[in-house]
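Recap from last week: sequence in, structure out.
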Amino acid sequence: MAAQTYQTHYQYEIKKLIEEEIERLKNNMATNGIITDIGEYRYYVGQITGLRKALYLCDDAETVVNGS
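Predicted structure tokens:
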């Protein structure tokens, strides 16, 4: 596999995994009884925020690599 093809595939897969994890966490938050206190709520919100930040950083890195 050529380096460029590998990198493109890797980038696609890592973004997909991050997006799936965000959805999993959101679904956990929406399920009744999963979150029992404010600490758990903050934990889930913090996880989602961090993962979204990772997606934004992936996009920023792609912009830099593409020279835009």
